[in-house]
Design brief:
Blueprint lengths: L6 H17 L4 H4 L13 H17 L18 H13 L7 H13 L2 H12 L5 E4 L15 E5 L2 E9 L9 E7 L10 E7 L5 E7 L5 E14 L10 H14 L3 H17 L1 E2 L2 E2 L4 H29 L5 H26 L17 H12 L6 H12 L6
Parallel strand pairs: 1-4
Antiparallel strand pairs: 2-3, 3-7, 4-5, 6-7, 8-9
Helix pairs in contact: 1-4, 4-8, 4-9, 5-6, 5-7, 7-10, 8-9, 8-10, 9-10, 10-11, 10-12
């Protein structure tokens, strides 16, 4: 595997970098408090929405919301490596660069949707006209998604949905739910689930806010009371949704903001270089240096995993195990980075951005709270280890 960029890839990387510098507000990186791989700081939606909308439109005009999609579906027709370059640069600058529709829903529709569904949904997604939220988890179904109870019964050309979803990130600022529902209650758990797209404005949909540990409204609980959805919104075949869902989860696990790890780490290193403790610069203290070096090594390993998945996709390989490896390693790195940041900054790391003594916009404080969510979303670390053990090492389920 050779991850060295060729001339075309280097040119594309520079083009993306120039675009970001021209289009993002000058103070965007400093003001955006997103923590790498966290869900609670994913965006401060109400405050950033107008800028996000404008930036997204510019990305759509360039075809960059769907870089590796075929041109007939609104994509740019570029390689997966170029898409990885794009996301690495975007995440380094904490720039908004796609969401559930572009990163998870669209690729899944491309694999399993009918030609009619592809023509209906993919161009709108590529143009940034619609946003999805993930409607998977329920109050009693998280890691074990096969136990979901939200049901859909057939009524002519429609489905009628009743149930509840929880932890719906950005549901309140999205247009559609990308939803897993039980369509055959008599079938075994894994064989009676369907994937369906549900309009948020449908009668019977109620969205209620959940404030997260960071104090932001990013999560929601959503209720469905006799919500009518056309059957044409079902992805692929009815009752095959579990298998589509597993592929969609792989796409989600590949969506790693790898660049933000490096950016946040560089900010902590800079703090250590500029801050004194007991008359000595922090970066000269052996314990601090060792902690920072350890994180630097792990970031390089994370990058290796990241480029490897893009390399595999460009060669038609399915990075199923690699998706779990990447997700497991980077989300646990998110927690290690937060712990290291807190150790480097000491009590100052506990200060929020509103304090006049805080540094780095209070990002380390928020990251320390938010990093726990990284270990849960898209499958817990324990789930990833089970996948790696069974599919990668061939170990028995029990």
């Amino acid at each position: 595997m050779d991850f060295t960029f060729n001339e075309q890839e280097e040119a594309f990387r520079k083009e993306v970098e120039d675009f970001i510098n021209n289009e993002l507000p000058a103070d965007w990186v400093e003001k955006n408090t997103y923590w790498p791989a966290g869900y609670g700081t994913l965006a401060q939606f109400e405050e950033l929405s107008p800028q996000v909308e404008q930036f997204t439109r510019r990305l759509a005009e360039k075809g960059w919301l769907a870089i590796s999609w075929p041109k007939e579906y609104g994509g740019a027709g570029l390689s997966h490596t170029e898409q990885a370059i794009f996301h690495e640069r975007m995440s380094y600058y904490r720039a908004p660069a796609g969401e559930v529709a572009t990163l998870i829903g669209g690729p899944t529709v491309m694999l399993f949707g009918s030609e009619e569904m592809k023509k209906e949904w993919l161009p709108k997604i590529a143009r940034g006209e619609i946003r999805f939220w993930l409607a998977y988890s329920e109050p009693n179904a998280g890691s074990d998604l096969s136990s979901i109870q939200t049901r859909a019964i057939e009524d002519g050309d429609d489905l009628i949905i009743n149930g509840q979803k929880i932890w719906g990130t950005a549901a309140h600022v999205s247009h559609y739910a990308w939803m897993a529902v039980r369509t055959d209650p008599m079938a075994p758990p894994h064989k009676g689930i369907s994937l369906v797209i549900v309009d948020n404005t449908s009668p019977g949909v109620t969205i209620r806010p959940l404030m997260n540990i960071c104090g932001f409204h990013s999560f929601n609980e959503v209720f469905f009371d006799n919500v009518r959805v056309p059957k044409r919104n079902v992805i692929g075949e009815m009752n095959k949704g579990w298998y589509y869902l597993m592929v969609a989860l792989d796409f989600e696990r590949l969506v790693i903001p790898i660049g933000s790890f490096r950016r946040t780490f560089e900010e902590i290193v800079q703090y250590a270089r500029e801050t004194k403790h007991n008359g000595q610069v922090l970066s000269r203290q052996l314990l601090i240096r060792n902690k920072l070096v350890n994180i630097a090594i792990q970031i390089e390993i994370a990058y290796m995993f990241f480029w490897r998945t893009a390399w595999m996709l460009d060669r038609g390989l399915v990075p199923n195990i690699e998706a779990s490896l990447l997700k497991l390693f980077t989300t646990e790195l998110s927690q290690k980075l937060a712990n290291t940041g807190m150790q480097v900054m000491g009590h100052y790391g506990q200060l929020e951005s509103t304090s006049k003594w805080s540094s780095l916009q209070g990002r380390v404080c928020l990251g320390y709270l938010d990093c726990i969510s990284a270990l849960v979303g898209a499958g817990t670390s324990e789930i990833q280890r089970n996948i790696i053990a069974m599919r990668g090492l061939g170990l028995p389920p029990k």
